[in-house]
Amino acid sequence: MDAGHEETSVSRSRSSRALQIERTLSAASNVVGKAQENLFSRLARVIARRPVFTILLCLAVFLACIPGMLLLDGSENMFGFIKIMTNFLETFTFTTTEEYRDYMRATSMFPDTRTVAFIAKPSNGHSLVSFDVLRQMHKAEVHIKDTMRFESVAGRQLGFGDVCERFTSGSPCLAGSAVSTLLGDAARLSELEGLQNSSLANVASWMIAAMGMEQRASLPLLIASPLTFPGPGATELLLSQWLLASTAAMSTFTVMNTEDGVLFEKQAAKDINNNGYPENTVVRINQFSSSTIAMESVQIGMDNVPLIALTLLLMSGYVVLMLGTDTRIPGNSQVKLLLGATCIPGLSGLSSFGLLGYFGQGMSVLGTMVPFLGLAVGVDVIFLMVSSVNAVGPDVKDMEEVLVRALPRGGMAATTTTLTSVCAFTIAAATSTDLPGFLSFNIGLVMVLLLNWMGMLVMFPAMICLSQRNMTAREEPTSGLAVQARMVMGCGRKLRNVMNSKLGYAVENSLPFQICGASVWLVLTILAIYFGLQVGKGMPDTYFVTDSSKVHAYLEDVENSFVGSVPMELGLVFDAPKVLDASYRSRMSELVATLNNRSDLALPVSCWLHSAVSMLSSSASMCEVDTAILTYLNDTVTGTASARDARGGIADHLQAARCRAFIWQPTDSEKRSEQALNIIRQVKDGFPELRAIPYHLSFPAQTARYRIIKEKTFSTAGFAFLGVFLAVLITMPVHLAFLAVGNVMAVTCVLFGFMWACNITCNVISYCVCVMAIGFCVDYSCHIVHFADHGVAPGTPWDKRMRHSLEACSFDVLQGCCTAFLGVAMLGFGSAQAFRIFALLAVMITLVGGFFALVGLPCLLALIARMLRACMGSEIVPEAVPKDEAEPKALKDDLQDIQNFQDMELSVNGFAV
């Protein structure tokens, strides 16, 4: 008995402390609410007294930000003057991964190269070994190597040979020619033409017979065949049979990663696409270069601009349709006012880019979505402000008094939703600084939201003041076009009346409606949690490629020709090699042997350092080691190729040495990631004393992102939820904060479930949408729970609170969903798959977020309230008392303490009665 009494006392003590915390947090939110009311009341008086000055001041702020767009950091020009970040390492690569650090360390010693590659695929039954096919390929190769010219940074006309001559003899400026590999000398094309009447088997044998061992060894890197390569030492018959089965050939041109190298690469890629030989009846030639994805990003950004303009027009039309005649004083319209208001989010989008430039940030292709989202979120406040002004009524004639009453109501709601969205995107930016493209995306959204908040709560009220200052009641027109126009623009008012009279009533009184709404909320959430955890990861390379790009044909040809894998040149850097140490040389030999035994090896490892010192005895002196290295580097055959793979002096002074291996890299993301991790573990974990660094651009740009993207998505969402919850606590009581954030979490769970159902993986795009879902949907939920508490007497049951809230803001929340839908829907017409996926996911969260806020959560709370009253057997409904008349002394009453205690117990479970 004593133990039970003690447990009860402890339970009451804990509940008392929890209740005290809840009271403290609620009191703090009330203080913040009062401070906001005072601030907006004073702001309203300033705006009403000087509306023109207020508008001009806001315009000056917007216009002062826009020139900063010229300062944006980036690697490519969009429209010739806006810089955009396009480098994969700048935009889509996590910079804190081990793969990224290894790549940067290796390329700091041996600068990376840029490559133009084209793949030639015979068509109409032609064979790769035929004269017509090789002649077309030779034509393309000659144009790039000898004919093509481009304007250098210094303004001179240069070609491939000129770019090569600008570097030291040790710099890689290479051309991998499929024609030269097959014929040995392009002059033999005339001999091949004379063999046109011979069988293809004879032609293939003729080619193989003239090849040296080095040419034969490079065949699988340049020629695609469905047969397994028999090896350079195989018989001529086997090699000719392999060559006859070949389906495509590839030629590559490699230069150093310099400004002139980039210009050469772009010109070569352009010429391959535009000079006539990419498409003919004999062979199809498609190219891919290091700048291809970069240029595709620029094109996508340019394609998005007209979509932004179209979105702005649609948004303006929709706002006019819904609110054109929804004025405080009957008989009037506000078309000009609304058209001006919808320009504010557009100005905010441009100004946000300018602020990014002033802050020294860059904009990636993801940043081109910021104006869409700015319009989607920003226009919501128009409905809030118009609703708040209209709530004042026509009896108040003084516009200063109208704004003093309206601005605190609309401003507090807009501030709460803006604050939570800003918090979500700020947390997302802070937790993703290692992904520069996503960082700039989130910072841009924060800027848009803040600038839009300023415009909507300062500039828009001033515009309302000017619009309604001399407005008087008018008679409704009875004939003509004006009647039809007012009927069309009266849709919003009719919809508002229907929602106010029907939705709130159904939520409060209809048990079937409550059951249906709550069931949908619960079932969707539970199923989404189960299936959402099974979402895959990875992103095809074509997501950021325009639909009309020839890259699709190139990647398709590569995939079909090389049968799921492509040759990849793996770099292997030995950092400060201790070649004087016999055990080091021995371990190096073991590593080379281990790599040569890999099943995915295309060619044996080429390692000049191993070749130079592997034959030395274990007791070799420093002089012998130095002599071996010098002899190898000075050899006329081996030295030219090896000089560019050495840094520093010899022996103990050798700073680094690079070796190379050609690996068959899978095109499938999962297999590619597994292979990269296997290579890294094999080299770094298996031979840690060698300090060897295996690297390739795909390791940081693709495999590392694939490895961590799912965990980053969930962790970033978790931090965003926490930040939003803390932000909501500032302006709302704790139980309301739990409700708002809980509803947003349910929407986010449904997002992951929808991704699983549509086979959409965790990738850079869904990573953005996940955080955007939190920033979007928290607005809807905050509106609903805010008005469930604003102006409602303490102790009011939640079914009645939900009816009050829906009557107060359901129309505004619905319009927020509709404008968000319009804001992102145009991305569905984007020129790249990534943006269409973004639009699909964004539309889904908009629809689900609106349904959960307007129907799901209200029905759930109303049903729980009904069930609790049924369990208690009675219902006490207090009279409606304005919230500001409820004195704190009421908390001292025993009955109120009991009610608050019950409220607190239920709020712990995520809802309150």
UniProtKB/TrEMBL annotation:
Gene Ontology CC, one term: membrane
Taxonomy, superkingdom: Eukaryota
Pfam family, one: Sterol-sensing
Residues annotated as transmembrane: 52-72, 305-325, 337-360, 372-392, 443-464, 511-533, 713-730, 736-757, 809-831, 837-864
The entry's keywords: Membrane, Transmembrane, Transmembrane helix
Keyword Membrane recorded: yes
InterPro entries registered for this protein in UniProt: HMGCR/SNAP/NPC1-like_SSD, Patched_domain-protein, SSD
Domain SSD positions: 304-466
PROSITE patterns reported in the protein's UniProt record: SSD
Family: Belongs to the patched family.
Protein name as it appears in the record: SSD domain-containing protein
